[in-house]
Amino acid sequence: MSAPIMDPDLLQAFVAVAEHRFFTRAASALNRTQSAVSMQVKRLEERLQAELFHRSTSSVDLSAAGEGLLGYARRILSLNAEAVGRVREHGTDGRVRLGVMDDYGTMIVPPLLKDFIASYPLIHVEMETGLTSTMTDRLGEAYDLVIAMHPEGRGEGELLRTEQAVWAASAAHRVEELDPLPVALYPQGCLFRSWAMQALDEANRPWRLAFVSHSLSAVEAIAAQGLAVTVVKSGTFPPTLRRLTARDGMPLLPRAEIRLHRAQKLSHAASLLADHLVAALRQPARRAAS
For residue range 9-19, what is the model confidence (pLDDT) as tens digits? Predict the structure, then answer.
């Protein structure tokens, strides 16, 4: 014999009475009549073939069976609400315009978008990669969301993680020994460009700008061929390059913060993507040194 199916409406009435201990109060909380709530509890008891309450003229107390059911009833109602919400969210549609740095746009964000689209197949994400220093000025106009890089301790938006800027060079060539040092960088406006120039100048290291490109792949390819050194993030360090440190005569570079910027007026679809990116990219806070 199959087990009886417990209607969520009946469980809702049962939980309300169990919490308020009066049918009248439970009915008021549910915006139903007292007779309707009483009937629903009676129907649930008939289905379960168990008395759920000890009723008296002054109060209503849970029976042993009712106490055993209460936890399950709350969990069933919670799962029911979660399932309904999930199904409705799955049908959310819309368009989201995302701006992101080149390396994150090619290495970090695509798997996150794959997971997001699997949950929200009707949401269309348009992603543009490039220098994010100017993208944040166009939030709301050209972008709904922007993942941008800022100096550590500065910048608005939601902090996702920190990245150490590091020098990188060919694994097969000792290009860092050349004088002047050839450097491959990004156009003006790139934080790493200004940091690299400032660090070399402060270290009194002669250098020349050997290559400039908006393309991360092009800059890395030049470095991989031994034509120049470049600057990359530690979290997206290319496997084709070799990390350079102070032992190689290279000056230390600052740390950067990766932050998510949201337009003031976001659609529901954009808010869902923003929350998804924050949950996936945010690093736990580091413990203070003891």
Answer: 999 999 999 98
